[in-house]
Design brief:
Length: about 260
């Protein structure tokens, strides 16, 4: 079974920077790097809580599904798997149950189970015809592929999510953009071609720069992570920052 996606150094209380701001950002980045898949999961589940809160006071199949999911979540992966297979429950909630079961499996490194549950989630999401559910399944598929070190596949899925959430679900869009940047770096590390390495690092740098300049409510840690990754690349490859500054000069209006 493949190891988790590449992570930042393990020591949480010793950093490599003298600047207190970047010391703190590095600690945050290390924590995110160790549990990257959790960041994607959090972004995925944000929309669920709103729908469930709304459904609590309603005596409808939606409310019943929300209640069943809350109950299954408290009981664990087996209950979630059972709910996902319950034909009496609306497809939306079956998809969400399978999605949460997949994410629990992903958290333990059981990629086969995660993929199996995501297949169920995908089918039920399509049946529900709810765009946000389909996109959350796609994001989870990207996270599984990244953890399996299938970086080309993961990158393609992350970019599809980022493209489809450009005008909504901004937390998920941010996580997908960062995921694509992480994949760029992993692919650069695996490449033997110097020109390809440079191109992939530059692509990652641009993704981190874009993400770090955004303001997404509730996703401040992701924004700080993006800023740190950009700074980390600038330190390791100063030419990236030089190219960036040169582009700004070239685009400046002529007086």
């Amino acid at each position: 079974m493949a190891d988790n996606a590449p992570t930042a150094p393990e020591t949480p209380d010793v950093t490599s920077y003298s600047d207190p701001l970047y010391d703190r950002m590095e600690v945050i980045a290390r924590g995110i790097g160790k549990r990257w898949y959790l960041i994607v999961i959090i972004a995925i589940l944000c929309s669920v809580a709103v729908l469930q809160l709304k459904a609590r006071s309603e005596n409808t199949p939606i409310a019943a599904g929300a209640h069943a999911l809350r109950q299954a979540r408290s009981e664990g992966i087996e209950a979630l798997t059972a709910l996902a297979g319950n034909e009496a429950v609306l497809s939306e909630w079956r998809a969400r149950a399978a999605l949460e079961a997949a994410n629990l499996a992903l958290g333990t490194g059981d990629l086969d189970s995660a993929r199996s549950q995501l297949s169920v989630a995908k089918a039920q999401a399509e049946a529900s015809a709810l765009r946000e559910v389909e996109l959350t399944v796609l994001a989870s598929q990207a996270a599984v592929a990244e953890q399996a070190e299938e970086f080309d596949v993961a990158s393609s899925l992350y970019l599809e999510v980022a493209d489809k959430t450009a005008t909504g679900m901004l937390g998920l869009n941010l996580a997908a953009t960062l995921g694509a940047g992480r994949c760029d770096l992993a692919l650069a590390a695996a490449s033997a071609d110097a020109a390809e390495q440079t191109e992939l690092r530059r692509s990652a740098y641009e993704r981190f720069r874009f993400a770090g300049e955004r303001s997404v409510e509730g996703a401040e840690q992701l924004v700080n992570y993006a800023r740190f990754k950009r700074y980390e690349l600038e330190r390791a490859y100063p030419e990236l920052a030089d190219d960036d500054n040169a582009a700004v000069v070239d685009e400046a209006p002529i007086e």
